Amino acid sequence: MSDFSDRPVPASAADAAALPAWRIDQNALNRMLDAGAARHWRVEVVDETGSTNADLTQACRAATWDEDDVRVRVAYRQTAGRGRQGRPWQGQAGLTFSVAMPLALPPARLSGLSLAVGLAVAEALEQCDAALGARIGLKWPNDLQIDGRKLAGILIESVPAGPQRLWAVIGIGLNLVRDARMEAALGRALAGVAEAMTPFDAQRDPTRILGAVLERLACMRTRFVADGFAPLAQAWSARDAYRDEPVRLLHDGAVLAEGVARGVDAEGHLLLETAAGLERIASGEVSLRGAGA
Ligand code: ATP
Ligand code: BTN
What we know:
The protein is of the alpha+beta class and 293 residues long. The chain has helices at residues 26-34, 52-62, 113-128, 130-135, 180-186, 193-196, 205-227, 233-238, and strands at 42-49, 71-78, 94-103, 136-139, 143-146, 149-162, 165-175, 246-251, 254-264, 270-274, 277-281, 287-290. The radius of gyration is 18 Å and the shape is globular.
């Protein structure tokens, strides 16, 4: 694995561009969803909000838990988009949305959900465009990458609703284009759907992608509630970008552990081969990096 992912790219990079104005075609989206597993999901699209995750988390706290009531909130602009570990999320180059998913599970059974969501998003993108799908790697616990550059991030927050019930508020930020200004601001090379999809149609593809992701998430939900992450572990591993690579685990910039990534177990824990033996790491507040990064 190269250390390219941590090198800022010049703003003039040929494939880095601003995203043209785009809109979700709600009629087309409804037609896509109508025939599938997400057909009863309520989708709301707003111009601007603070954070779709914050909105749905708050809505769940005030709602009565109902297994069939799945809400989706898409925002063209978030003024306080949030990422993992309290970091801000910049959404101007992409699709930002959240799904409030009622799950008849205790919190302990959520282990592996973030990996299952990452896999569902990767499979949806592959369904939209095979060439794009072929380039996507998964970074434990829940990032999507192209060539070590971040394509999408996932933030899952849970709202308890009883001993065997909760909502998982699943937030997804997917970069549609590789945005030079954002790369400069973050000091990171990023990825965008458009660089791998030929041609990317900014008017049509966000709707197609959203529809495909929602459908995959709906199928994943049924399997996950029944059997957890275990049946998905093999498919996740097939897309693992760091399998058998030397890696470091960081928290707040400090190195917590170093070793060779050996895939994931049936609960979605990272298997890290260290000098002291094989360790199982729960996702929590840690970030994985290639050893060279
Ligand atoms: P994680 O800890 O979730 O695994 P990371 O820090 O390893 O992520 P990097 O690609 O190394 O991911 O760094 C990207 C940083 O920029 C992250 O802190 C991420 O949250 C932040 N960021 C903000 N907006 C975006 C965006 N639109 N695309 C990618 N990264 C973003
Ligand atoms: C990460 O990689 O740090 C997770 C990023 C998650 C961003 C999405 S954008 C839609 C939803 N609303 C938010 O405020 N965050 C998530």
